[in-house]
Structure formats: C-alpha cells, structure tokens
Amino acid sequence: MNIPFQNTYARLPARFFTHQTAVPVKAPHLIRFNDALARDLGIVPGGADEIAAVLAGNLVAPGSEPLAQVYAGHQFGGFSPQLGDGRALLLGEVVDRAGERRDIQLKGSGPTPYSRMGDGRAWLGPVLREYVVSEAMHALGLPTTRALAAVATGEAVYREAGGLPGAILTRVAASHLRVGTFQYFAARRDLDGLRALYDYTVARHFPQVEGPAHLLAEVIRRQAKLVAGWMSVGFIHGVMNTDNTAISGETIDYGPCAFMDVFHPQTVFSSIDVQGRYSYDNQAHVIVWNMAQLATALVPLMPDQDEAIEDFTALVHAMPDQIETEWRRAFGRKIGIAKAGAADAPLIGDLLARMADNRADFTNTFRALLTGHARDQFLDPAAFDNWEAQWRARLKAEADPEAVMAMANPAFIPRNHRIEQMIEAAVSGDFAPFERLLKVLENPYQDQPEASDLARPPEPAEVVQNTFCGT
Ligand code: AMP
Ligand code: MG
C-alpha cells in the first residue's frame, strides 16, 4: 500500500499535538475500502490484509508521522480549555488529484494523552454509521469529511450495552482545524501559537484572505451555507460543539446525528441533548453562537482590540441574514424556484408549518412535489391543497421547476431505522445491508424502484427515538 503522505501539521510548533502511534489491535480485518476515494487521493491500495494492517494502525505506513491534535471547545455551552484527539490520530496529509490537501485520520485507534476517561476506541455501530452518513452527505452535495475505510479490530469494546465488536474508521477531511483549535490557543493567551495557527489556516484553506476579519467572514460564509444545506435535507448534527465545527466548512464529527423522518422543527435525536440546544431549528442559531466564539478567539490577533471587537461583532450580527438567504435559496429550489427572493420566504414557511402540523415526512413530501402526490403525505390532505394553489401560481414565473426540484429533493436519505437495522445485521456478521445502503445512497437524487423500501419512513415499531454519541 502506498499513501503519498506529507506532514505539514507535524511541522507546527510541538505544543499543537502529541506524537503518538496507534495501539495495535488483535486481528485487523478490512470491512470496506473506498476505492474511488482512494484513487482521488492518489493512494495505491495493495491487498486487503495490508490495508487492514495500515488502517488499523498496526503498521505505520512509510511517510506517516502519526499525531494526536490538541484543541479546546464549548461543549453544550460550557468551555473545556483542553480537549483533543482522544481516540483519533492524524496519520498525515495527501494532496488529492484536484490539488487539495486532505487529512487522513484514524478514529478508534487507541488512547492518547487527550483520552481523559475514554478508552480511545470505537465500536462497529458508530463506525458504520459515520461511514454511511458521511458518504451520503457527500452524494447529497454537501461539504463533508469522507470515509476511506472501515476495519474491524477483532477486539471487544465495552460500553453500557456490554462487549461490542471494535472497529476503526479512516476519515478524510479538508483539515481537522476547528473553532476549538483557535479557542485552545486564545484561552491560554498563547499569542505565538494563535499566530502560527492563523498563518497555517490561511495558507491551507484561505490563500486569498487578508487578516483575521476576512478569515472570520469567510468561515461565517461557509458555515451559513453548510447549516442551511443541512436543514434543506432534514439533517440534525446533534453535537454542534465548537470543537465539532470545522474551519473548512465541512460537516465533521458524525456522532448522534440523524436525518428527520416526520418533519418537526424542534426535533432532537441525541440522548444527551435534553434541552434541545442542537435541535433541527436551533442549528441556525447555535452556529452564530459558535462563530461568536471564533470571533472572540481571533480578537487577540488584532492590533486594536476595541476596534476588532466592533468589527467582528458586526460580522457575527450579519450572519443570521446570511443564513436566512442561504436557507431561502435552498428551500426555494426544493419547491422549484431557481432563485428565491425575500418575497418567497412566506410560501416556504407556510409549507413547512403545514407539514409540521400534519406529520408529513420531510424527504418524501418534497420529493412528491415532483410526482404530484405530495398531498398524500399530509394527515389532512386539504392542508396541502390550500398551499398548492398559491405555489402553482408562483411557479408560472419559473422556467423549469421540475428540473430544479429533481436536483434539490433527494429520493433517498440514510434513514435512522435503516441505519440501526444495518448495524444490527453487521454485528451479527451480515454486511449486505451496509453495502446496499452505501450503493443506493451514492445516487440519492435518482429514483431507484428496486430500493423503494429504503425510501419508506419507519413503521411505528421501527421508529428510532434516540441516537447516542459515537463513543
Ligand atoms: P465528541 O463530542 O464526540 O466530538 O467528543 C468529545 C471529546 O471526547 C473529543 O476530544 C474526543 O476525542 C473524546 N472522546 C470521545 N470518545 C472517546 C473515547 N472512546 N475515548 C477517548 N476519548 C474520546
Ligand atoms: Mg469531536
């Protein structure tokens, strides 16, 4: 196996990370390798046993300088001055065929100095969940980390439920720079560290950026688009802590995330999110709060801090309008409006309110706008009929609403109950449902009649109420 590793992060000052090798596992076995992604990354795979050994961390690949990154973060609003890769290792970076630098990271590779009470491991369930959901997110067209491989460790991992099969995910990311990485150095008043981080971030992601205010504006722009994108596919991240908010604007850290079936704006899946801080609707507010934390961490970089606070505050205060614009554009496309203007927002909001009142399935309702069967999704179909008249009138001004909707309304999302069923099968050794989910979700905007069971909402007995942090 040849991975053309580079190690720019390892060249940062020593206090940015800890050199750390993976703790070898008993019997690494390759569950799945993402050949197409590997090709994009310029990786020459080799045999399954070698891939499993390298991506379980049993073999250190030539050129890799594995390390655990340190960061901080607000978790559910409370600040932890020191977190870090507690069960992950950055193996290094590769420059992909498009010229973009990408991190190659193992998740579940054993304890590090940042593990606190954790065992540094992951079990099969969350590994397969992240594999499927992150690849689905990519196919849906949203920025996200990717999954390169899943490897079984041949060891048991102990959780509340008892002994579970262990696994390691290989994650690919534009970088693992987080809001929390900036917070780490800012909280320690390590100005040199903060400067080095700023320079690294700009060189890696934002070469056109001139100054911290400009960087903040760019991250805000990307995050506004990302969160609106999540909402447009019914995605609930579930742990939007500042350590799980990537500077690159990618979706990162698939833990208790889930896609909604029945639409309700206050939906929460995560078992630990008792206050609904990261509910579907609140994502648009919390991301602004997270950007305010990034702004705070960037202030020390500025020569005139009072002026910086004023400028950065203005940028953060402008974010809700940006999210609203992105949201309107994304949902406008879902109802066939190519470039929705402010005047279209009430039409979108009205549909969503009726969907919530009528327990309509989020994905299937929008998809059915194309086929003319949307009213069947409503408890009271008349609630749709009243909206439809205004909608049809508005669509007269659109050139090709069907084409716009077909690209904006997926037929397939990774439904929670299917993920749970897939995990259950995998635990008993049957990976066919995992492979099938992956295959179907590669083309979420295509009708695939043979997979209609995967488009069906859960039966009452199949409904998954809670998801758990991927520990
Ligand atoms: P999360 O909110 O899932 O991103 O995790 C928060 C922190 O907990 C991160 O610093 C993780 O590295 C750490 N963590 C989560 N699970 C484990 C585990 N099983 N062992 C060690 N550290 C963990
Ligand atoms: Mg995390």
Automatic annotation (TrEMBL):
It comes from Roseovarius lutimaris. The active site is at D243 (proton acceptor). It catalyses: L-seryl-[protein] + UTP = O-(5'-uridylyl)-L-seryl-[protein] + diphosphate; L-threonyl-[protein] + ATP = 3-O-(5'-adenylyl)-L-threonyl-[protein] + diphosphate; L-seryl-[protein] + ATP = 3-O-(5'-adenylyl)-L-seryl-[protein] + diphosphate; L-tyrosyl-[protein] + ATP = O-(5'-adenylyl)-L-tyrosyl-[protein] + diphosphate. Its EC number is 2.7.7.-, 2.7.7.108. Belongs to the SELO family. The keyword ATP-binding applies. Residues 448-471 are annotated as: Disordered. The keyword ATP-binding applies. The gene is ydiU. Its cofactor is Mg(2+); Mn(2+). ATP binds at G84, G86, R87, K107, D119, G120, R171, R178, D253. It is an enzyme of class 2 (transferase). Mg(2+) binds at N244, D253. This is Protein nucleotidyltransferase YdiU.
